Amino acid sequence: MADGYRSVFAPGLFDGRLMIVTGGGSGIGRCIAHELASLGAHVAITGRRIERLETVRTEIEDVGGAVSCHAFDIRDEAAVVAAIAEIIAAHGPIFGLVNNAGGQYPSPAEELSVKGWDAVIRNNLTGGFIVSREAYKQSMAEHGGSIVNIIADIWGGMPTMAHSGAARAGMLNLTETTACEWARSGVRVNAVAPGWVASSGFDTYDDAMKAELRRLRDEIPLGRYGNESEVSAAVTFLLTPGAAFISGSCIRVDGAVPNHRHTWTNVPTDRSIAFDGFPLATLPECLR
Ligand SMILES: CCC/C=C/C(=O)SCCNC(=O)CCNC(=O)[C@H](O)C(C)(C)COP(=O)([O-])OP(=O)([O-])OC[C@H]1O[C@@H](n2cnc3c(N)ncnc32)[C@H](O)[C@@H]1OP(=O)([O-])[O-]
Ligand SMILES: NC(=O)C1=CN([C@@H]2O[C@H](COP(=O)(O)OP(=O)(O)OC[C@H]3O[C@@H](n4cnc5c(N)ncnc54)[C@H](OP(=O)(O)O)[C@@H]3O)[C@@H](O)[C@H]2O)C=CC1
User: Fold this and answer.
1) How does it assemble (predicted)?
2) What is the sign of the dihedral through the CA atoms of 232, 51, 99 and 65?
3) Which protein residue has the closest C-alpha to ligand 1 atom 21?
4) Top CATH class, 18-257
5) pLDDT truncated to tens, each residue of the chain (288 aa)?
6) Would you list the domain boundaries of the chain?
7) Nearest CA to ligand 1 atom 44
8) Whose CA is nearest to atom 14 of ligand 2?
């Protein structure tokens, strides 16, 4: 038998608990599924492509974990309603939900079509909302639970990711709002915001984007990309009783990137020209 996932959390912590991980067929979601299963959970992994889910199912079962696969698009409301009902019928009440599925494509904002914008907003905001609502209504409202939403580093502009940045910022507020609304049902809702994490997600980028990623790596204060297990550990912590009084919060897993942003190295050296092209002298004193 292959080695299982080595979590820093106590073995058996989630024995018999049902956890859903959307986007569990690759990258960060796959890693989270492995960690939760290694701690005793039954993990329901979801995604659009069943073959990727089946591969992860085999990996987890090979090390003795409990897992099931459920293929659906998180943006398809009817499919989500049916899939959540099917998961509960087969595996019992939902204890944890990790809204990890998502993604986008890079594009300058002025070149985004409304169709492309909508596709990405639905992938990174609407989908997570639908899955959360159904997990709450169909199960967690009765007995409590914990939801973790994977967002992104939204503490600043995200050039070429306007659609995704807007969606993830919306997801952070949805996290905060549902944390309030569902608290009295014993449901906690938190977010984890990965920075640049070397995962299968990087494979979806073209060569220009990969070159940009290599440049960005040098600007990460901790000097490297994050890895999938570092995101998974933060998610797992939020699902544990150790986080019982944490709700509506966000853990950034980003090597301190947002703290570093204001140390710009590319500020204009010609101090006679303001950033917007107006001569500096025309600006009020307080803006100089
Ligand atoms: C954010 C910070 C860091 C994050 C890192 C990560 O997330 S790593 C993880 C990274 N992992 C992932 O990102 C994985 C998940 N990502 C995805 O599945 C896609 O990015 C998706 C959300 C667009 C799929 O939405 P879908 O199933 O609805 O796809 P669809 O094919 O039907 O397209 C609908 C419309 O969108 C437009 N459009 C789409 N693609 C492009 C493009 N390349 N170029 C230009 N435009 C594009 C286009 O308008 C298209 O309509 P058209 O003109 O064809 O009639
Ligand atoms: N890697 C990074 O640096 C960062 C990643 N993130 C976010 O973390 C999450 C995981 O990313 P990562 O593992 O790197 O990338 P991946 O592309 O490997 O993971 C995305 C997963 O989501 C699934 N998915 C995407 N869209 C849908 C959909 N509409 N319905 C159902 N499933 C869907 C995909 O499976 P399938 O295609 O089969 O549906 C895939 O398994 C994503 O939300 C990503 O945007 C955020 C910040 C940084």
Assistant:
1) Interacts with PEX5, probably required to target it into peroxisomes.
2) negative
3) 104
4) alpha beta
5) 357 899 999 999 999 999 999 999 999 999 999 999 999 999 999 999 999 999 999 999 999 999 999 999 999 999 999 999 999 999 999 999 999 999 999 999 999 999 999 999 999 999 999 999 999 999 999 999 999 999 999 999 988 999 999 999 999 999 999 999 999 999 999 999 999 999 888 888 888 888 888 888 888 888 899 999 999 999 999 999 999 999 999 999 999 988 876 544 444 455 455 555 555 555 555 554
6) 18-257
7) 105
8) 201
Per the structure block, which two tokens stand in for 229? 């297990």
Cβ atoms of 171 and 147 within 8 Å: the answer is no
Which residue, judged by its Cα, is nearest atom 47 of ligand 2? Answer: 152
Rounded to the nearest angstrom, the distance between the alpha carbon of 23 and the centre of ligand 2 is 6
Six-digit token string for 31 = 């890693």
162 lines ligand 1 (CB under 6 A): no
Burial class from Cβ neighbours inside 10 Å (0-12, 13-18, 19+) for residue 66 reads: middle
Q: What's the pTM? A: 0.93
